[in-house]
Design a protein that fits this description.
Distance between the termini: 22 Å
Helix content: 25-40%
Strand content: under 5%
Structural class: mainly alpha
Number of strands: 0
Number of helices: 1
Shape: flat
């Protein structure tokens, strides 16, 4: 049985030049963790 989970995040981007690299790094680190299945970024 397939399960599709949608997570939406809302936050203020006062300094996108600082936030976006941190989000990219967080995504990369999550992918190498045990138990990580897959993701679709919308």
């Amino acid at each position: 049985m397939a399960v599709y989970v949608v997570i939406k995040r809302k936050f203020r981007m006062n300094r996108p030049d600082e936030i976006l690299p941190l989000l990219k790094e967080l995504n990369q680190r999550a992918k190498v963790q045990p138990g990580y299945v897959s993701t679709d970024t919308l």
